[in-house]
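Researcher: Please translate sequence to structure tokens.
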Amino acid sequence: KNRKMQEGGLDYRNKVILAPMVRVGTLPFRMMSLEHGADIVYSEEVIDKAIISSTRVVNEPLGTIDFIKPDGKLCYRTCVTERPNVFQMGTNSAEGALAAALKVYKDVCAIDVNMGCPKHFSVSGGMGAALLDKPETVREILTTLVQNIPIPITCKVRLKATMAETLDFLKMVESTGIKAVTIHARTKNCRPTQPAQWAALKEIVDSKVLSIPIIGNGDVYTYADIQAMKDQTGVDSVMVARGAARNPSIFSPVAKAVPEMMKEYLKHAIITDNNFSNTKYVLLYMSKEQGKWLSQTTQGVALHKSKTYEDVCAIWDLLEFYAEFQRDLEKKIADMKEKQGEGNTIEYKRARLHQDDEEEEQPPTKKTKTETAQGTVKDTVQETTKEKTTDTNQETAKETTKEITKETIKEAEAI
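Model: Translation complete:
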């Protein structure tokens, strides 16, 4: 199926899409969203340097593809049944973007560049919404990816200060050859509590400056809101973020109760061997829809106090489900080790194939895979930039991109 996606491209029209969400959008949540009607799912944002320095591992016992950091922790996880899947990266340079894309493109259906995140960890490293003010860097990143990666490339942006600036920016990103653009209907200075500017989306659509699909994003909290955004703005597709995080059944015309969805999510988290702290975080986020449920019910109090999978499984009567999965997985691990023999150099270390959201170690400072990978694509990027400059008859000064510090990566992965 992924081969067909690469050959024929991914259709971005008339779709309902799960937005990239840090911490929430890990594999179990993406799988659950697909089951409930999402047409396409975006991964949580992954920093280019993090994926570059990772090692791709076929996790046979779990049936997943894992990208493991040098310290043994999980950077990104997907599987063959997660389709159509989009990998979203945070980047501030064409070199980094291309090196990251080359690492992961065979395991995903498309790649998206984050140009909309306003958080400090992103903009301080020249990523996310910081790119809205660096059009030539954006042009170089997208052109490089489009010309060198054989799957669809897209980007997710925000509104700029004026409509004229927004339209100029959108025309520029389309000129690079991307397949679609997602527009979050807020500026980078807007807070999430401020209403999304659907009228601005309509103005963009009515301007007809774009021929590629426009994906609208912002203030979609119910299934009815999905159609309302399409009707009121004319966007080709709709991307759902917080509405899905609160209740993934938003993708279905028949909504399910949040407690039921929490139990369903927990089962997905178990069978994907998801990190417990991440699982608890998502369950707590979903519980926000339940008013005082977290503080005034036995289940809510138990969830708040939980420290292990056994604790949360007891809440939803899933202890036997969890125990059976553990037995089955341990048997698969044992069978794999026996099959590979004593000479096996790649040991399946379950406890270390987890994201650690709270205590990320800093990446290595010496030259390793990150710098090596970027070095191998530097000539390609320079050639791409040269060709694009000639085609557009513009003198493009290549900006010196701001180095992503160790602290920046640590903060990004910990949120």
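Researcher: Any highlights?
Model: The two ends are 33 Å apart (CA to CA).
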